[in-house]
């Protein structure tokens, strides 16, 4: 950080005299070069500095405290947004208007007292213009604002209304991960996931599984890694997902935000933004409900550039999908940066079991959050001490319906689901159906019916219906032995009508003869057969009270 000498270098004698006057000093030097060391030496006096701090307005002391809380520096754009601008003016206008005596902002007041400087600094990821406190100005040991607590998280505790309806964190993301792994292996679209909070989508969960080392470069499950993950105890499995997310350099939550689309080649540091937000969330006192709106609002006021290099709000091209509006400029901070904070808390942190949520009512969006009972363990990279156990309560019906409760053994459900058609989830669990098509698909992937029967026998809560066992064994030996088809039937009153019809051009549309007066019509030929009957003197119409695919 520049010191006082470098901060004041380049200023003319009139500026230095303004600074000295503000401090109650008198400079007798004839020029800036000789006045500079006199002024710097005087400002090193701790007693003089304390006297200056004591007469500063509270808002000016808050500005200095904000810099000290940020290691003595802050981006110039952020500092001036919070504490006002310094007017740009030449020496003549400055000497006439005397901004040192009539400042328009706290920033300008501090500027003309040399309590802050302005310089470009070589900071990652790129040089930034910063406001700073000169490093040799003895401010760091002073209490600028009585009662200031620098270790509290942003925001405030939640109100009773904000935390009325509780949404506890769960570990159901493990079951959702099992569902997606099976769906990816089978080439299916997964059903709706179980986790609460922000809507979890398949691409978002796929990114997490990829970061956890469970997918190959084609996005397919790695057999050994997936098996070990599904067989792992739930505490170890949830910890693996947490660590994968926290440490991921690939997951980019800003580009996961619903209804927003990123365009162009610009890049953001999602890892750094995630780490910053996690640090703030981790400061929330255990057992305390914290206001989500207050959390976001304080970050907006004090740390808005947490993910923006050099406070740049114009080069990121982000569009709202529903309206096509581009969200550029600081005025859209809440729609982008604020939305990211809310998403991280109500999405990944909640899905992974680290924060509980609350809302004014069960239907309302979350308005408060609290560290969960498992948060301390997970934050310290330890498996959580207590998670609900997995259950072994598979049930099979005679018609091939398989019912598995939520939190079933994941490795078992992964294997069973690959033999079945997936039905919508029931209130009590997952539903699968064994069909010839699903068995054929499983056979194509190298799965055997004998393996399915072995799984069902070992894990079913009751004996498997013998008829189902017989049907599966027969299918395994000879394939499908019965077909159900929908066909159009032609019924006539006399075999002579069918004989006459076979002598017309419509004969090619007649299929299998079922009885002397009933024949199957080939698909799509109903109108052609109707015209042919009319040509040989017979009217026809759908039979009253009969299946609409039957013609008379």
Could you characterize what this model shows?
There is one protein chain. Helix content is 40%, strand content 12%. The protein is α+β, with helices and mostly antiparallel strands. It folds into four domains: 4-132, no CATH class; 165-379, no CATH class; 395-478, no CATH class; 488-551, no CATH class. It has a four-stranded antiparallel β-sheet with strand order 4-8-9-6. The chain is elongated, with a radius of gyration of 37 Å. Residues 544-549 have low confidence and may be disordered.
Which descriptors apply to this entry?
552 residues; 4 domains; elongated; 40% helix; alpha+beta
Indicate the low-confidence ranges by residue numbers: 544-549
What is the count of distinct domains? 4
The first-to-last residue Cα distance is 96 Å
Radius of gyration: 37 Å
Major β-sheet strand ordering: 4-8-9-6
Number of helices: 22
Helix content, binned percent: 40-55%
Strand content: 5-15%
What's the count of strands? 17
Q: Main β-sheet: number of strands, strand sense, barrel status?
A: 4 strands, antiparallel
Mean pLDDT: 89
Judging from the principal axes of the Cα atoms, what is the shape?
elongated
Q: What structural class results from the helix and strand content?
A: alpha+beta
């Amino acid at each position: 950080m520049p010191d006082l000498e470098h901060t004041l270098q380049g200023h003319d004698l009139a500026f230095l005299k303004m600074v000295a006057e503000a401090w109650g000093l008198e400079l007798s030097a004839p020029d800036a070069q000789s006045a500079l060391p006199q002024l710097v030496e005087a400002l090193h006096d701790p007693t003089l500095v304390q006297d200056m701090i004591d007469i500063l307005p509270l808002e000016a002391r808050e500005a200095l405290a904000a810099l000290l809380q940020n290691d003595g520096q802050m981006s110039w754009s952020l500092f001036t947004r919070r504490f006002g601008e310094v007017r740009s003016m030449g020496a003549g206008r400055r000497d006439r208007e005397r901004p040192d005596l009539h400042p328009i902002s706290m920033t300008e007041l501090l500027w003309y007292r040399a309590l802050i400087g302005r310089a470009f600094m070589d900071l990652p990821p790129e040089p930034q213009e910063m406001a700073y406190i000169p490093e040799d100005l003895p401010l760091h040991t002073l209490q600028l604002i009585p009662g200031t607590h620098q270790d509290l998280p942003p925001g405030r505790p939640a109100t009773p209304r904000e935390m009325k309806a509780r949404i506890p964190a769960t570990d159901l993301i493990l079951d959702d991960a099992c569902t997606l792994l099976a769906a990816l292996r089978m080439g299916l679209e997964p059903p709706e996931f179980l986790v609460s909070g922000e809507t979890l989508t398949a691409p978002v969960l796929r990114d997490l599984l990829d970061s956890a080392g469970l997918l190959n470069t084609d996005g397919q499950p790695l057999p050994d890694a997936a098996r070990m993950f599904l067989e792992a105890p739930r505490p170890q499995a949830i910890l693996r997902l947490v660590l994968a997310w926290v440490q991921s350099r690939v997951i980019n939550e800003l580009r996961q935000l619903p209804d927003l689309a990123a365009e162009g080649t610009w890049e953001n540091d999602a890892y750094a933004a995630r780490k910053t937000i996690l640090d703030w969330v981790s400061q929330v006192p255990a057992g305390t409900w914290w206001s989500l709106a207050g959390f976001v609002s304080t970050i907006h006021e004090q740390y808005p550039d947490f993910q923006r290099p050099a406070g740049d709000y114009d080069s990121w091209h982000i569009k709202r999908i529903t309206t096509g509006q581009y969200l550029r400029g600081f005025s859209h901070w809440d729609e982008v940066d604020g939305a990211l904070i809310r998403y991280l808390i109500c999405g990944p942190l909640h899905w992974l079991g680290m924060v509980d949520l609350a809302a004014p009512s069960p239907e309302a969006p979350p308005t408060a959050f609290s560290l969960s009972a498992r948060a301390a363990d997970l934050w310290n990279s330890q498996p959580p001490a207590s998670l609900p156990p997995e259950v072994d309560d598979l049930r099979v019906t005679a018609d091939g319906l398989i019912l598995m409760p939520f939190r079933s053994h994941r490795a078992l459900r992964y294997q069973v689901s690959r033999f079945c058609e997936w039905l919508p989830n029931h209130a009590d669990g997952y539903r699968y159906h064994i069909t010839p098509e699903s068995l054929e698909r499983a056979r194509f992937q190298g799965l055997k019916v004998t393996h399915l029967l072995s799984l069902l026998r070992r894990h079913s809560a009751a004996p498997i219906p013998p008829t189902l066992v017989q049907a599966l064994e027969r299918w395994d030996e000879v394939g499908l032995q019965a077909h159900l088809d929908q066909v159009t039937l032609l019924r006539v009153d006399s075999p002579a009508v069918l004989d006459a019809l076979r002598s017309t051009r419509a004969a090619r549309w007649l299929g299998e003869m079922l009885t002397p007066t009933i024949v199957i019509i080939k698909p799509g030929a109903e109108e052609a057969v109707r015209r042919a009957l009319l040509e040989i003197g017979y009217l026809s119409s759908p039979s009253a009270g009969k299946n609409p695919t039957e013609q008379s």
